[in-house]
Design goal:
Layout: E1 6-11, H1 12-19, E2 22-24, E3 27-31, H2 37-53, E4 62-67, H3 73-86, E5 90-93, H4 99-109, E6 113-116, E7 125-132, E8 135-136, H5 139-146, E9 149-153, H6 176-188, E10 198-204, H7 209-218, E11 222-228, H8 242-255, E12 259-263, E13 270-272, H9 282-292, E14 297-301, H10 307-310, E15 316-320, H11 324-336, E16 342-345, E17 351-353, E18 367-371, H12 373-385, H13 390-395, E19 401-407, H14 412-433, E20 441-445, E21 450-454, E22 459-464, E23 471-477, H15 480-495
Parallel strand pairs: 4-5, 4-6, 10-11, 10-12, 14-15, 14-16
Antiparallel strand pairs: 1-9, 2-3, 3-7, 6-7, 7-8, 12-13, 16-17, 17-18, 19-23, 20-21, 21-22, 22-23
Helix pairs in contact: 2-3, 2-5, 4-6, 6-7, 9-12
């Protein structure tokens, strides 16, 4: 049976309320059981319909599709493919490749790109990430997609799943997107760019693990593959699991590694360790990479380490709300205002570029979406050029240290209510809520969540996650031990809020 007849319509705004699958500028995310074929079809149709209504997607256009290694990704990709065909477009199957790889291919081909991924969240959840031909969807696009009313075919059963024989056959995988991504790095760096380095590639279930090995081997590194897994492992670069801390600390001395590199599930956020197996914080890795790129404008969310400003390395620093759409919009504005080498990064380590750069005298095209490999390469290349260990590069930065963690299964509504109560109470309420050892409150920033600066320079930043039922806590201090202690003590306070 081919595509069915359109039998009813659904409002995306109402679907957001009834499905349990949230939709925003990070795309759609939810529990796998809630992400029925019908829900995934509807969100994909709304995205395409919105682009069509804006004149940004013509009839019979190509649409690039890719996915991560989760157990549910294949089924969801089939539903997304069904929606693309029903809208009269041609799906291009790019395979299981990183989010930045399919986004780059979309930018190169001037076509939309859709990635099925839940990023770092557990395997019982998944998501769909949407990119227009210009890059990630932004806040204005989100509003436009939410306002769509889409038609649904009679291809779904009462549980919202495609009935037998209804799904269209997807095309064979086209390796062009993966090859373009590999060529990006091989063209931008000399074949001996990483010569002399012995690198561990911690693959776990990251979709880009094999491409990391291919690229870094091609650039001269001696590669040791580590920890590949056949089941999905939810590696969060902002809240690194203790087992990953322990593994890295053991691997580096045992195997004589100069560093370990890894990514989250969809390989847009980096992990990189020093020679001792100590993972770098994403917001510190971002500073080192921005220095390598000789950026003149750096955009970063408010939660990122303040060593960015204290380093004095950049002509202009712009702070935004948390989320890549805010970073991208600020970067675009900075380019319009005359910035020549404009970059951005997030606390999770994802690095974005709004300008074409030439760090090695070879052009590296802009990629205004999170990319893990640029952070790896920027730091490792500095280590080679400066003949320094990664830990020595870190030691050159001002002594500001960050820690982050989160309370999982913490209802979003409860997070917002508790933070609003604390904000209304001001400094007096905050000093009462936190242990006396935190000291007096010096300043409060509500740009995104609640960021409290204490008299001694310590920072506690609380924020409800935008894509999971989690309450996140970021802390910053003059020592790593103090930052971690602040974080642990704050989480104990937050736990009492349940």
């Amino acid at each position: 049976m081919g595509p069915g007849i359109m039998t009813r319509t659904v409002s995306i705004a109402s679907l957001m309320e009834t499905s349990g699958v949230k939709f925003g500028t990070s795309g759609a995310r939810g529990l796998v059981r809630a992400m029925t074929d019908e829900v995934c079809f509807a969100y994909t149709s709304a995205f395409l319909q919105y682009l069509e209504s804006q004149g940004r997607l013509g009839p019979h256009s190509r649409v690039a599709l890719a996915g991560d290694l989760r157990s549910s990704t294949g089924r969801i990709l089939a539903a997304v493919t069904h929606a693309v065909v029903q809208r009269g477009h041609e799906p291009v199957a790019c395979g299981r490749i990183p989010s930045p790889a399919v986004a780059l291919y979309g930018l190169d081909q001037r076509i939309p790109a859709i990635m099925v991924t839940g990023s770092h969240i557990p395997d019982d959840r998944n998501g769909i990430k949407f990119n227009s031909a210009d890059g990630e969807i932004l806040k204005a696009d989100e509003l436009g997609i939410r306002s769509q009313v889409v038609s649904l075919p009679d291809d779904f059963d009462s549980a919202g799943m495609l009935v037998a024989g209804a799904a269209v056959a997807g095309p064979p995988v086209d390796p062009a997107a993966a090859r373009l991504f590999v060529r990006r790095w091989r063209d931008a760096f000399a074949p001996d760019a990483l010569a002399g380095l012995r690198l561990g590639v911690y693959g776990h279930s990251a979709v880009g693990r094999d491409l990391l090995v291919e690229v870094y081997s091609a650039l001269g590194a001696d590669i040791v593959q580590l920890g590949y897994s056949g089941r999905f492992i939810p590696v969060d670069t902002e809240a690194i699991r203790q087992e990953d801390v322990d593994l890295a600390a053991r691997w580096c001395p045992e195997l004589g590694l100069d560093a370990i590199v890894s990514t989250d599930g969809d390989s847009d956020r980096p992990l990189i360790s020093d020679e001792h197996g100590r993972w770098l914080r994403g917001d510190v890795a971002g500073i080192l990479c921005a220095q390598y790129l000789k950026a003149d404008v750096v955009v970063a969310p408010i939660s990122c380490n303040t060593a960015l400003e204290a380093s004095g390395a950049f002509a202009r620093v712009i702070r935004t709300r948390i989320g890549s759409p805010y970073v991208i919009e600020a970067m675009m504005n900075a380019v319009q205002e005359g910035g020549r080498r404009v970059v951005g990064y997030e606390a999770n380590g994802g690095f974005l570029t709004a300008s074409a750069l030439a760090p090695e005298g070879r052009e590296l095209a802009r990629l205004p979406t999170r990319d893990a490999m640029l952070v790896h390469l920027g730091i490792l290349r500095r280590a080679v050029v400066e003949n320094k260990a990664v830990s020595a590069l870190l030691a050159q930065l001002p002594p500001r240290y960050t820690a982050s963690d989160r309370l999982q299964e913490f209802p979003t509504e409860l997070s917002h209510r508790r933070l609003a109560d604390l904000q209304r109470g001001g400094a007096i309420a905050m000093e009462a809520a936190f242990p006396e050892s935190f000291g007096k409150v010096r300043g409060i920033d509500t740009l995104d969540g609640l960021r409290v600066t204490f008299a001694n320079g310590d920072i506690v930043h609380l924020r409800a996650s935008g894509n999971a039922p989690e309450l996140r806590c970021y802390t910053e201090s003059a020592s790593d031990e103090r930052a971690r202690a602040l974080n642990a003590e704050t989480l104990r306070v937050l736990e009492s809020w349940r």
